[in-house]
Design brief:
23 helices
Length: 638
Amino acid sequence: MERPVLLCGLGRVGLRVLESLRAAALPVVVIDLKTEPDDPRLCGATVLKGDCRRHELLERAGVKEARGIVIVTSDDLVNISTALLARKLNPTARVVVRMFNQNLITRFGGAVKNTVALSVSALIAPVMALTAVTGDALGAFRLDDGPRQISELLVTDDSELAGRPIADLALQHGFAPLVLAPAAGSPVFLQAVSGQRVLSPGDRLTVTGRPADIQRLVQRLRGDRFAGVQWAGALRRWLRTARRTLLEVDLAVKIITPVLFGTLFASTLVFRYGLDTAWGDGLYQTVSIIATGGDLHGENRPEWAKVFISVLKLAGAALIAGFTAILTNYLIRARLKGALEVRHVPDGGHIVVCGLGNVGYRLVQELIAMNERVVAIDKVADGQFHDTVRRMGVPVFVGDATVPEVLAQTRAGAAKAVIAATDSELGNIEVALLVREMNAKQRVVVRLTEPEFADAVREAADIRNAISAPALAAPAFVSALYGDSVQALVPVAGRTLVVVDLVVNDADDHLNGASLRAFVLDHDLLPIALSGRDLADARGYRLKVGDKLTVVAELPDYERLLRFQQPPTNHRVVAESWPATARDALVPLVCVSRQCSREEATALLHGGAFTVADGLTFGAARELIELLEREKAKARLV
């Protein structure tokens, strides 16, 4: 029986991980506190109900024979405890752990052998951030030299893309074509996209490249280059701050403050005109009586003045006591920091992030790295990321983003984009609809859970950028079992593309020694990057231990790769003709391909058409034909 994968936790993320494991044809044993054995979501998978931290439960699940353990509960302590226990029971199996704590993500994987810690927020934040910035990011991933994004280009009648070959455009704009969906006909994917194909109006070309390059191209094609962040003048910003500060003041403070100052003014008038005292002396005597209760030799005053001073002493004592108590109480509860944040909000061109949990914090980091101006809203008054985000120069408003007044304070209607990334799906939908009321054309990115719900929101509510977090993150947990890293999962033209880092781990790895060209052709992969090498100069390269190859594949092709499903070896290459001047160069190639001597190869090249090699995979056959054609020989695939 094939060694199983243990899946601990069947929450929202765990369920999507289970689907990915089953798609890869891997036997799964689920451990969960709540799931019953007859749960229809299991689709036949074995389930053990209980705490995954129990030694005996892990042993019943087959932890000692497991090929890998994926731990995705919603509690970091449970995940860490289970990972350490699993590592003790099985020192060799790969352990993939879900983490929420930002500090533990990198440190835990490095401290525990053969263990990978992944964060859902870190996996989805780059996609959401790029979508907010460009409005056209279908996906995002990161290479050693920086981020990349995936976008779709629409060819219109007056587009600069129309009438030009894909290869020329790719060279000019620095992108790699992934999918071509022609105006008439079926879409073609990855290796099937011909660089010589000339684009026509109505065609849709999905490409990947550097965000700056793609964004410039997309904005020029749409003719809506954004003007950038728009700031009001300093005076207007300070007036907004003053207005917001006054609105924050309690009613009791607003009442007692004018009463106190009115009393001071009235008393000063009495001293000035009733007792013929100078303005300054009148104010000084009024403050002295109210603040200290001093009599200021009142026995020498007229009778009415004595009565006035006595009343002023009593009223002043009450006013000072009341004013001090009310103002102190207000200052203790005051939200003046939020009032001061108003002056840091631009008039437009910024990005509003609603929710400063793990996902929201990651979004702010990504957006700041992209030099975007960010304004944050969080419902929690003392959120754990507030101070850190403020130190990045990001104003944080404490309030409910589903309240129109709170969104108005952040000028969400004039922002470049609004990202609804709270933990409440209903709240996120509500934010999106409120923002659309403020600006019907506003770009809104919505964080959701269920992919079916995200599809419905995109289609029915016309909120194009609704993103299912678990669906995007789940394949990364499965690929981590093999040492690979899925960076993005992108739906395009009715299919799903996956961007994955394939790592050659050791000498026994099935990738070790494989021809790069033959490998990508056999598995229909599009290579994007090879660590430490230029792909343009990688002709004839064979993969070795330590190589990291980043490829784009259709999801079924990647799942077959995960199952180590070998391509058929039923192809043959026949050399039909070649120039006499190429014989000497072709001899070594024929020797290696046919495993024959130089004399036999020379004899074949002095004759007619012959089979150069058979029993080849499609990729190996295509690579051999390309080598023959490079020497001016004509060959065909049989």
